[in-house]
Amino acid sequence: MRALLGVSVTLLAVVLTGCAGAPSGGQPTTTSPSAATPSTSSEPAVPETTPPAPEPAAYTIPTDCASLIASTPFTSTFGSWPLNDPGVVGTPGEPYYTQTGSISPTPAPSGATLLESMLSATELRCIWRDPQADITNLSVEVGEVDPAISAAYMQSLPADGFSCTAEGSAETCTKFSTDSKYNVEVGNTLLVRDGVFIRVSQANISTPDLLDTLVSDVWK
User: Could you tell me the superkingdom of the organism this chain comes from (predicted)?
Assistant: First the structure.
């Protein structure tokens, strides 16, 4: 009888222990990770945009002739010649007076050639030449020009014996030959970039890297 009582007590304890783990609804309590709910939202599409065109490099038209070749080897070559000498460019009121230094653009004359139309926009003109020199000289002209005029003029130069190259937004045309009278080299160089032109005319003088120097003076 004692053995049976012990078995009954043991069975009762097991039953009570099992009931303690179940909720009132009779189902066992279980712990399971929550199922991930798939997201039904989507990020709004980013509209495609066209990147803005790069702006032209900043430039400034120089206003002083001497500063164009300051601290360069050219100060001891053509830079030692008279600059804008009245014996070369004349004086105001004379028929063949040529404005030099920092000047204001002027309207092109009626019937002007493409070159004359472009040079009428000159804002800086520098002429290095001794009044006693027969041909030796160098001149630089810089200004802003109507792109339609400069484009038409540049397109006409190969037919006149110029060699033209393009690099980025710049186009350069050059022509060198030998003067038949004095048997010296004469040359003309024209660069157009961002609506600005640089024109160099020279005779009996070598000027390696001069154009690079002038470009660095304009596009800083």
Answer: Bacteria
